[in-house]
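Design request, tokens follow.
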């Protein structure tokens, strides 16, 4: 790779999916760029075989992150990642955890809701604008960002809300980090960014959606071999009363437990959470809270308190 190149990491997804009337095929990153007429504009391309994004594991997401990291180490002036939208927000969040605090060049993730063969695909425009945004030096100050439908999101706030529309994503909490237009990027003020880069991930962190009438024995069984636990709970981090005893028992036996609300529910600690011995997700969705807990558990030094690190991971890049 020549220093100063923009590097594209193409991981498949709807943006590259094409139906020719008989079968579905996946276009390579070179093909996507070639259609834009940008193949000769100091852009290098790397195809990373990942399959559909709904099937990606956290280790797969970390693998994509390592490809981005390698491109930056090799001298890339910026990196664009094309990704399927099912898990785009999770790869973005994990990538930001591992790269964001020390990011020296812009990294932009994009994708599409419509396949390449759609009569009016959104992928080409998203990719073109991502390749323009990644040349904005101010982008690196915001960590890993997502650009879709001319809206710029921080990795922590982006959430897919509607799988049936082109405007599928939103910022939680809002407003979005910025927007893209004819004059380039318009940025909102970035939040302070500070956390210690993770070292790795711990796999044994189940995510459990609490449902009405859930038996305590079911939750206890799921937690048997867990190193941490994320519970997607009701409202403003509300747990049904029949489950209080088992959560109290598990947390006081030393199991780290994070509550994440189905709706946006900010906060890390309060009187009720302290009583149960759990913490909140700072408004992050349950899947993002799971990645944060996996990273915090996988990065602890001997004798280190888990919770300041976890709070920084949940709160960083808001």
């Amino acid at each position: 790779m020549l220093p100063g190149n923009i590097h594209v990491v193409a991981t498949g997804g709807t943006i590259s999916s094409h139906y020719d009337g008989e079968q579905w095929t996946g276009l390579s990153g070179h093909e996507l760029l070639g259609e834009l007429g940008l193949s000769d504009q100091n852009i290098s391309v790397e195809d990373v075989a990942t399959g559909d994004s709904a099937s990606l594991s956290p280790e797969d997401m970390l693998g994509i992150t390592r490809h981005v990291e390698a491109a930056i180490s090799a001298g890339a002036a910026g990196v664009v990642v094309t990704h399927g939208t099912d898990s785009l927000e999770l790869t973005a969040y994990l990538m930001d955890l591992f790269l964001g605090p020390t990011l020296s060049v812009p990294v932009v993730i994009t994708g599409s809701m419509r396949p390449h063969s759609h009569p009016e695909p959104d992928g080409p425009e998203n990719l073109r604008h991502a390749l323009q945004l990644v040349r904005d030096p101010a982008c690196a100050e915001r960590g890993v960002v997502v650009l879709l439908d001319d809206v710029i999101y921080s990795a922590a706030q982006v959430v897919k809300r509607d799988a049936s529309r082109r405007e599928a994503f939103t910022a939680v909490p809002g407003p979005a980090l910025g927007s893209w237009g004819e004059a380039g990027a318009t940025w909102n003020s970035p939040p302070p960014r500070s956390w210690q880069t993770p070292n790795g991930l711990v796999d044994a962190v189940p995510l459990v959606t609490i449902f009405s009438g859930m038996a305590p024995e079911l939750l206890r069984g799921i937690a048997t071999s867990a190193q941490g636990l994320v519970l997607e709970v009701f409202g403003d981090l509300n747990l049904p009363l029949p489950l209080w005893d088992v959560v109290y028992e598990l947390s006081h036996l030393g199991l780290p437990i994070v509550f994440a609300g189905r709706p946006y529910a900010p906060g890390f600690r309060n009187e009720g959470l302290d009583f149960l011995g759990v913490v909140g997700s700072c408004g992050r969705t349950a899947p993002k809270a799971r990645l944060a807990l996996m990273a915090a558990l996988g990065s602890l030094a001997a004798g280190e308190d888990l919770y300041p690190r976890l709070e920084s991971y949940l709160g960083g890049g808001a």
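Comment from the thread starter after seeing the answer: thanks! The chain has two domains: 6-187, 207-315.
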